[in-house]
Amino acid sequence: METRILICTALSGGSLHALLEEAIRKYGPERLAIGVERIAMDFSIPCRSGYGIPLSRESLAALRRRYQTPVFFSEALCAKYFTYRCDGKARLVLFDDDETVRRKLVLAQSFGIRDAFTVYAGP
User: Fold this and answer.
1) Are strands 89-95 and 79-86 parallel, antiparallel or unpaired?
2) pLDDT digits (tens, 9 = 90+) for 55-79
3) Helix (H, G, I), strand (E, B) or coil at 57
4) How many other C-beta atoms can be found within 10 angstroms of the C-beta atom of residue 32?
C-alpha cells in the first residue's frame, strides 16, 4: 500500500479549491487523499483563532430551530453556514451535510484525487 498525504477538507477560512491546487503542485494528485469529516462549529465574529465551538448534530439542529436564519453555501469553504446574534454578539455556524460532503468528493475527483477518508460518527 502506498502512503498518501491527507488533506483535511474542514476549513474555517481560505479556499478548499486553492488548498487542493497548492497540494497538487507540491505532491501531485496521485500522492494525495482528502479527509472528509462532517463537522459543525459555532464561531464568534470576528474569530481570530479560526477555531469554533464543536457542535453535535443535536446542538446544530437546536440552533437552526431556535434562530431560523437562512442557510447559505460557501463556495470557497465548500460548507454551509448561517449567522445569528446571541447576547448582542454576531455568531457564524459552519457545517457539513450530505450535500457538502458530496461536493468535496466531486471537487477532489475533478483534480484527479482519487482517494478519500471519511469519519463516521454514527447515527
Assistant:
1) antiparallel
2) 999 999 999 999 999 999 999 999 9
3) helix
4) 22
For residue 21 the three cell numbers come to 491546487
Q: What is the mean pLDDT of the chain?
A: 92
Q: Return the CA Rg of the chain.
A: 16
Segments of the chain with pLDDT less than 70: 1, 120-123
pTM: 0.88
Work out the angle at residue 86's Cα, subtended by the Cα atoms of residues 37 and 98, and round it to the nearest 5 degrees: 25
Question: What 3-state DSSP class applies to 3?
Answer: coil
pLDDT computed for residue 120 by the predictor: 64
Complete DSSP assignment for 74-110 = ETTTTEEEEEEEETTEEEEEEE--HHHHHHHHHHHHH
The closest of 26, 35, 46, 57 to 122, measured between CA atoms, is 57
